[in-house]
Amino acid sequence: MPLLKTLKGQVLLISVAFLALGLATLTAANYFSSRSQAYESLAAQSQALARSHAEALRDWVRAKAGIIEASAAAVGDADPVPPLRMLQKGGSYLTTYFGYADKRTAFSEPQNLPPDYDPTSRPWYQQAARSESSVLTRPYADAGGAGLVVTFARAVRSGGSVQAVAAGDVSLAAVVANVASIKPTPSSYAFLVGGDGAIIAHPELKLALQPATAIAADLTAAMLQQLATRTELHAIELQGRPMLLSVVPVEGTDWLLAVATDRAEALRAIRTLLQVSLLAGGAVLVAALVLLAAILARRLRRLTLVRDAMHEIGEGDGDLSRRIDTHGEDELAQIAASFNNFAGKLSGVLAQIRDASQSVRVASEEIATGNHDLSSRTELTASSLEQTSASMQQLTETVQHNAEAARQANQLVAQATSVARHGGVVVGNVVSTMEQINAASHKIADIIQVIDGIAFQTNILALNAAVEAARAGEQGRGFAVVAGEVRSLAGRSAEAAREIRALIGTSVEQVDAGSRLVQDAGTTMSDIMDSVQRVNDIMAEITTSTSEQSTSIAEVGQAVSHLDQMTQQNAALVEQSAAAAQSLKDQSARLSDVVGTFRLSDAHAGAQRALLPAP
Predict the structure, then answer these.
(1) Residue 604's closest CA among 318, 324, 320?
(2) Could you tell me which of 290, 543, 273 has the C-alpha nearest to residue 404?
(3) CB within 8 Å of 505: residues ≥ 6 apart
(4) What digits encode the pLDDT tens for the residues 387-400?
(5) Is it the case that residue 594 has pLDDT exceeding 70?
(6) CA distance 351 to 600
(7) Between residues 87 and 29, which one has the greater pLDDT?
């Protein structure tokens, strides 16, 4: 709704809502309080009504029981029938009678009894015999068509034993009529039940002697006994109707009198009160709505003027020279004063913006000119850096080629060093082998010397053997031959040893000469290895220097390339700055146009101030 979008409508709605809430709360409190009082009053009335009728039933029972007690004096009469008839008529009994312990009977009216009728076996006789006072039997249907009947009985004792029982049958028609007359409201009624829960009296006669659960499943004998101890009303549904039940006991009996009040009829006055309260609240709400609408329309008129002034500033000709009358000291006058201050400050701010936009426009023109010159110089610098970068690239490639050649020479020197080192190892092995041969030759010479000594000794021994064989004569001739052979062998051995010694000596001299040559070769190889190692170290230093030079030149090339990129970026930024300066110039011109749409106060733009009418 458009009304709810306005401050007036929202204030009106909130006020009416709070008023409605207050009226609803007051109405609900009155309703619940009245209903509680109505329940208490209704409970007291129902209890009083039920107790008054229960007392009437009590008096009726006492009167009937008193008549039976009075008839007990005639039990011993020779002819008890006349007293019984008198009691029957005086007490409105259907029949009065005596039942004797010897099984005799006496009735006020002739009875059609069987010959073997035994009064002592009847329930009324046994019930009275068990009690010291008058008793009342449970209701039963009379066989003669008299409706519901109860029996009052009293035992007559003699010497502690029952002599006879005086009894009388009474119709419950008067009791039923009394109960049926109880009608607190047109749809309310009462009913009488016995201690066993059977219905004694009810407006619907067909329910007589049926259990009370026939009219409500909850009305058991225990429930009725419990309700008889309470004074408050019990809500229950009887035969499909919501009722309020009040139960009181009938003194002198086990009967319970229940008064069922129709709930809707009993609370009709409360519902009427609620309807009247709602109508009155609605009338008050409508009157308050009209009154609040009129008050708000008058009090918020100045706020409407503020809204119209803001609307003119926002969508009209932008007149900031307009002012609102600040007459009064309420919040609306304060809002008007605040609006006037706001308009004055906004006018000043817009004037400053207008002046600043002019300054920005001039500055942007100067920036654009400077950026254009800077862009030209930056382009020249970028061109020079591109040429320098190309030259550095060529120099980098040349140094890298030299570094590659130095690395290859270093690898060749390393290979030569490895070969020389291997030759040194071989020469060392040869020297070692020659020394071993020389040692072996000396050992062989020593062995030959030993062999020569053995041959000499063998020759001496053979000579001695020949001398001894000559002395032996003929017996030693064979031994002499052997000794001669041994001597011959010893001589040849000595000769061979001398030849071997000469050969060994020659070999030792040649081996010594070879060892000296090999040692000289080892010394030469060591010198070669030292020279090759020095060459290797020099080539390694050259390779390292060349690599470092290549790396440095590459870094210089990268720096020149990066510098070239930065110069290109600077050129682009200069162009962007020139474009931004042009855009800033355009925006300042547009800002000046926008500010020009507002009419400022005379303190800032010399315009006339218009005063709005007071509300």
Answers:
(1) 320
(2) 543
(3) 445
(4) 777 777 777 777 77
(5) no
(6) 8
(7) 87
Amino acid at 212: A
In CATH terms, the superfamily for domain 35-263 is: PAS domain (3.30.450.20)
Mean pLDDT, to the nearest integer, of 325-330? 65
- Residue 614 above 50 pLDDT? no
Angstrom distance (rounded) from CA 486 to CA 468: 14
What pLDDT, in 10s, does the model give residues 483-523? 778 878 878 877 887 788 788 778 777 777 777 777 777 78
Domain ranges of the chain: 35-263, 340-596
Query: Could you tell me which of 574, 111, 210 has the C-alpha nearest to residue 367?
Result: 574
The predicted model scores a pTM of 0.44
Report d(CA 540, CA 417) in Å as an integer: 13
Cα distances (angstroms) measured from residue 558 to each of 320, 369, 399, 599: 62, 33, 15, 61
The C-alpha atoms of residue 139 and residue 149 are separated, in whole angstroms, by: 5
Closest alpha carbon to 190 in 52, 63, 59: 52
Match 């449970």 to its residue by tokens: 138
Residue type, 579: A
Helix (H, G, I), strand (E, B) or coil at 139: coil
Looking at residue 574, its amino acid is V
Q: What angle do CA 427, 430, 431 make, to 5 degrees?
A: 90
Q: Which of 517, 528, 510 is nearest to 425 (CA)?
A: 528
Concatenate the DSSP letters of all residues of 182-236 into one string: --SSTT-EEEEE-TTSBEEE-SSGGGTTSBGGGT-TT--HHHHHHHTT--S-EEE
> Model confidence over 63-72: pLDDT tens digits?
999 988 888 8
What's the pLDDT score for residue 164? 93
Is there a contact between 292 and 214 (Cβ–Cβ < 8 Å)?
no
Note the pLDDT of residue 129.
Answer: 92
Closest C-alpha among 521, 522, 506, 508 to residue 437: 508
| Ramachandran angles phi, psi of 381, nearest 5° | -60, -40
Residue 301, pLDDT score: 67
Buried/exposed code over 66-89 (b: 16+ C-beta within 10 A; e: otherwise): ebbeebbebbeeeebbebbbebbe
Compute the distance between CA of residue 63 and CA of residue 384 in angstroms, rounded to an integer: 145
DSSP code for 598: S
Question: Quick one: residue 219, left, alpha or beta (phi over 0 = left, psi -120 to 50 = alpha)?
Answer: beta
d(CA 18, CA 8): 15
What is the spatial distance between Cα 201 and Cα 60, in angstroms, rounded to a whole number?
Answer: 15
CA dist 361 and 589 (Å) reads 7
pLDDT of res. 615:
43
Half-sphere exposure of 317 (CA within 13 A, CB side): 6
Q: Where are the beta strands (DSSP E) in 70-225?
A: 95-100, 105-107, 135-136, 140-141, 148-158, 161-171, 189-193, 199-201
Instruction: Pick 340-596's CATH classification: 1.10.10.10, 3.40.50.620, 1.10.287.950, 3.40.50.1000.
Output: 1.10.287.950
Q: Torsion angle of alpha carbons 345, 347, 350, 354, nearest 10°?
A: -130
Question: Which residue shows structure tokens 């009216």?
Answer: 109
**Highest mean pLDDT (candidates 120-129, 179-188, 425-434, 471-480):** 120-129
